[in-house]
């Protein structure tokens, strides 16, 4: 999830996202190794996450003058489905080339 989108979520949705991220990490790494090393690190990173969210809130994006290629998942959450350009339309001065990838946001990152 892009930090701009994360900032727009309600507090409980932010918590659910972070919880999902932690679960993803648990599947990615060996479970025991995760419990020993990464959970404490993830907890420490909540301050970093909050600082990033504040920076995202304060950031004003400028248009990029060049061409942009957007890889967009075919399964969109309802709150993003209204904009086929996913917020990039006003930020691209050149051509915005869009490619649809099957699945959801996370599925796009998995090997076929």
Low-confidence parts: none
Proportion in helices? 40-55%
Helix/strand order: HHHHEE
Query: Mean pLDDT score, rounded?
Result: 80
What is the tally of beta strands?
Answer: 2
Cross-sheet strand order for the largest sheet? 1-2
How does this structure look, described?
The protein has 112 residues and is mainly alpha-helical. It has two domains: 3-58, no CATH class; 68-109, no CATH class. Helices cover 46% and strands 11% of the residues. It has four helices and two strands, in the order H-H-H-H-E-E. The chain has helices at residues 3-8, 11-28, 31-44, 46-58, and strands at 68-73, 96-101. The chain has a two-stranded parallel sheet. Helix 2 (11-28) runs antiparallel to helix 3 (31-44). It is globular. 0% of the residues are buried.
Provide the descriptors you would attach to this structure in a database record.
single chain; 112 residues; mainly alpha; 2 domains; two-stranded parallel ribbon; 46% helix; globular
């Amino acid at each position: 999830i892009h930090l701009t989108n994360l900032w727009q979520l309600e507090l409980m949705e932010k918590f659910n996202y972070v919880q999902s991220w932690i679960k993803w990490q648990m599947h990615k790494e060996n479970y025991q190794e995760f419990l020993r090393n990464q959970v404490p690190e993830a907890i420490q990173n909540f301050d970093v996450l909050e600082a990033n969210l504040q920076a995202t809130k304060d950031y004003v994006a400028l248009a990029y003058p060049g061409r942009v290629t957007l890889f967009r998942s075919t399964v969109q959450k309802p709150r993003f489905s209204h904009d086929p350009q996913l917020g990039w339309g006003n930020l691209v001065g050149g051509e915005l080339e869009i490619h649809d990838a099957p699945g959801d946001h996370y599925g796009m990152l998995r090997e076929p």
